């Protein structure tokens, strides 16, 4: 690889990171306002116009906060764990298309790449629990591993359903295959399985059992603070945005469905706006679920995964 290519990909990576960091700030504000609306509260109102700068203030506070390292922790594992959690969330975006021909790398095996990369974050959760040398953190890490491994099966099965329908693993071709009808109308069950499994993969309510404060203090991240904890939160929201984007691509037709009779607007700009509108709708659904449903117990969570989602996902493959 030449020096120019290295500089090019480095610039793309930096641009992508800055864009995702901005999206995370927007998502934090949107989630706080959405939950406040559901619970009849005001949410952020003080910092900036209608509290719009509150996520920026929180980010600055976390960055400047003292980063405490427990004396009994495994220093190397403790420091590397947040990076291992974040890097897969960042790398997934290498192949998610925002519009036609607007993607970092349009891989023929794009769905396979996403599945292979996304499962690596499990290692980071276990490393965080182990490196903290805290029994509660270790218990949270093991719960996280058990949950993510269990829900990875229906997660992959729902992706395979879309691949069978589209006859391809290329994300742009999957979007093109929905030019007439979105796959959510053909496979609502696969959409439900993917959304539910995705929430479990994210560890969001009602599947946030591995860091349930009422049971295991704070999960695998109980010993983390400051910038380390900020990286972990950054990974969670980047993953949330990625799950919403994948739902829009695989089930809602991405940027190409339905066709819109707008003239005078650049095609790529219109495609990006329409794609972001779909992502925003999915994210609001995720926030609504968090503000509505209670947390599952660990036995209920595992039973639902193995006794309901796994059999249903295999049956859905057969029917497809």
Average pLDDT confidence is: 87
Q: List SSEs in N-to-C order.
A: HHHHHHHHHHHHH
What global shape is seen? globular
Query: Into which percent range does the helicity of residues fall?
Result: 55-70%
| Model regions low in confidence, pLDDT < 50 over at least 5 residues | none
Largest sheet: none
Class based on secondary structure composition and strand pairing = mainly alpha
Number of helices: 13
Number of strands: 0
Question: What's the N-to-C terminus distance?
Answer: 43 Å
Strand content is under 5%
- Please compute the radius of gyration using only Cα atoms: 20 Å
Features:
320 residues, mainly alpha
Question: Would you give an account of this structure?
Answer:
The protein has 320 residues and is mainly alpha-helical. It starts with a helix and ends with a helix. The protein is 68% helix and 0% strand. It has helices spanning 3-38, 54-64, 75-91, 110-118, 121-132, 135-166, 171-176, 183-186, 188-202, 213-216, 226-250, 267-292, 298-319. It has 13 helices and no strands.
In a few lines, what is going on in this structure?
By secondary structure, this protein is an all-alpha fold.
Topology at a glance:
Blueprint: H1 3-38, H2 54-64, H3 75-91, H4 110-118, H5 121-132, H6 135-166, H7 171-176, H8 183-186, H9 188-202, H10 213-216, H11 226-250, H12 267-292, H13 298-319
Helix pairs in contact: 1-11, 1-12, 2-11, 3-5, 3-11, 5-6, 6-9, 6-13, 9-11, 9-13, 11-12
